[in-house]
């Protein structure tokens, strides 16, 4: 006899939550999911204000440079101009379509979807806060045998004078007016992506970062190479630079810097990190342990200290990537309701996670950085290639491409692969499969390249630049 309303209740309609709910329902479980469907729809950060719209805007930014480069191939005529309203409208239409796809997938799988804010109320009870048809608040409760928290993360803006004048990455896709002068504060991948995108769209972009180089945690050579390429493309990148205060004047936002200088901008974007989205979830009342910045603490099976409560994705502050949340969700589903027929239970490993940064040019990486490899292995052999791509021999662009392989000399295994260049993410994805399988440099050397492509460079590097 069922003593709970649901077998699984998912709080959060982002990538991880939707995947867990849908797959659990397909296993025959009674599943519900709660998400506040207000300004955003199902799909979470990735679909609404993250991966998808960001890459659409990255595509948009490339068209201006493509129009300029086309002259080298004989195409004549003036460059097109950006209609910001058209771009926003078309993006919104596509995101709304994807929201509908997610909703149809859930309901088609038999998931009950609540348009409500859900909070833990102790035990196996979840409280639901909704708005009634007349606008008055409504409250109800349901119970579930298992509860999964997948509420993701939210942008973090530090406290300083003028904080109220800045925007976050969530706001950038729907700015009322296109910012002709944009200041981006931050040096992570989100900051670098938006700096590149809006530079490509035609804004005058200044990027400020307090550190010594952008993309902390990435391979050092990749970091320096990308910074040089972004600067060459027009981004005014200022390192070791911090903001003291921001105030609004008739001619724009005045950004006072620690070095005494002042920048004037139409928009100031703070991309200085994200924190787990845990406010109001009732975690304390339910006794769920939390770590730094409120992150939910979980074990290897994504189980909290409260045995029937689980958490996946950015809310655990492990690896903040959509595919990671999807993989973690499947581990939970297989553990609670069994794997799909004929399949082994899903396992999640955090080595060899491929990552792309949609800057201009793109970054693609999988495995260890050179510094990490040298910490882990006694001897590391480094292969490196830098070149101007075939496309740009006629385009007139000075953009260059960097490719790098890191090899554990003792075993010949490729332990790191990095690229800065056009379509780096598309190229690195295939090599990530090989690296996950333990590919060696000998296998790389015996693989024929597809000519002429940039990707073939990875299988034609023969001479190490840094022998072990």
What does this structure look like?
This protein is α/β, with parallel strands linked by helices and 468 residues long. The chain folds into three domains: 6-154 and 276-337, FAD/NAD(P)-binding domain; 157-272, FAD/NAD(P)-binding domain; 355-459, 2-Layer Sandwich (Enolase-like, domain 1). The protein has helices at 15-26, 44-49, 51-69, 84-108, 189-201, 220-233, 283-286, 322-337, 370-376, 392-395, 424-436, 441-446; strands spanning 6-11, 31-34, 112-114, 117-120, 125-131, 137-149, 153-155, 181-185, 204-209, 236-239, 243-249, 252-257, 262-265, 267-270, 274-276, 309-311, 355-357, 363-367, 380-387, 401-408, 413-420. Strands 1, 2, 3, 4, 5, 6 and 16 form a seven-stranded mixed sheet that branches. The chain has a five-stranded antiparallel sheet with strand order 17-18-21-20-19, with helices on both faces. Strands 10-9-8-14 form a four-stranded parallel sheet, with helices on one face.
**Residue ranges: pLDDT <50 for 5 or more in a row?**
none
CATH class value of the largest domain:
Alpha Beta
Fraction in helix: 25-40%
Task: Note the main sheet.
Answer: 7 strands, mixed
Fold blueprint:
Elements: E1 6-11, H1 15-26, E2 31-34, H2 44-49, H3 51-69, H4 84-108, E3 112-114, E4 117-120, E5 125-131, E6 137-149, E7 153-155, E8 181-185, H5 189-201, E9 204-209, H6 220-233, E10 236-239, E11 243-249, E12 252-257, E13 262-265, E14 267-270, E15 274-276, H7 283-286, E16 309-311, H8 322-337, E17 355-357, E18 363-367, H9 370-376, E19 380-387, H10 392-395, E20 401-408, E21 413-420, H11 424-436, H12 441-446
């Amino acid at each position: 006899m069922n003593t709970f309303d649901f077998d699984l209740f998912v709080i959060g309609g982002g990538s991880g939550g939707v995947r867990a709910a849908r797959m659990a329902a397909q296993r025959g479980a009674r599943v519900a999911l709660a998400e506040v469907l207000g300004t955003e729809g199902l799909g979470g950060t990735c679909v609404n204000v993250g991966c998808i719209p960001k890459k659409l805007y990255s595509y948009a930014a490339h068209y201006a440079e493509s129009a300029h480069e086309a002259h080298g191939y004989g195409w004549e005529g003036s460059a097109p101009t950006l209609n910001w309203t058209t771009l926003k409208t078309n993006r919104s239409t596509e995101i709304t379509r994807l929201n509908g796809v997610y909703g149809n997938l859930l309901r088609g799988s038999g998931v009950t979807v609540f348009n409500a804010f859900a909070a833990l109320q102790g035990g196996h009870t979840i409280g639901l806060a909704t708005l009634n048809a007349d606008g008055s608040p409504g409250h109800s409760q349901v119970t579930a045998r298992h509860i999964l928290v997948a509420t993701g993360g939210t942008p973090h803006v530090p406290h300083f004078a003028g904080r109220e004048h800045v925007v976050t990455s969530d706001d950038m896709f729907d700015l009322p007016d296109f910012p002709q002068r944009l200041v981006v504060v931050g040096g992570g991948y989100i900051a670098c992506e938006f700096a590149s995108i809006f530079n490509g769209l035609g804004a005058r972009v200044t990027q400020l970062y307090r550190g010594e180089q952008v993309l902390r945690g990435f391979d050092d050579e990749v970091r320096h190479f990308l910074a040089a390429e972004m600067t060459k493309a027009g981004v005014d990148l200022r390192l070791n630079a911090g903001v003291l205060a921001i105030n609004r004047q008739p001619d724009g936002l005045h950004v006072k810097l620690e070095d005494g200088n002042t920048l004037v901008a139409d928009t100031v974007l703070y991309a200085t990190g994200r924190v787990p989205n845990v406010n109001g979830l009732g975690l304390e009342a339910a006794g769920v342990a939390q770590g730094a910045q409120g992150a939910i603490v979980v074990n290897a099976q994504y189980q909290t200290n409260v045995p029937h409560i689980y958490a996946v994705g950015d809310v655990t502050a492990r690896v903040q990537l959509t595919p990671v949340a999807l993989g973690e969700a499947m581990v939970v589903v297989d553990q609670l309701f069994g794997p799909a027929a004929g399949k082994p239970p899903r396992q999640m490993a955090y080595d060899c996670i491929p990552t792309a940064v949609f800057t201009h040019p793109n970054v693609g990486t999988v495995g260890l950085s050179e510094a990490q490899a040298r910490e882990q292995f006694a001897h590391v052999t480094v292969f490196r290639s830098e070149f101007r791509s075939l496309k740009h021999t006629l385009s007139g662009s000075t953009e260059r491409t960097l490719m790098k392989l890191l090899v554990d000399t003792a075993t010949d295994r490729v332990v790191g692969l990095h690229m800065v260049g056009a379509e780096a993410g598309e190229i690195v994805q295939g090599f990530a499969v090989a690296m996950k399988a333990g590919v060696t440099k000998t296998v790389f050397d015996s693989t024929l390249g597809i000519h002429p492509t940039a990707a073939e460079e990875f299988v034609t590097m023969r001479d190490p630049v840094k022998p072990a």
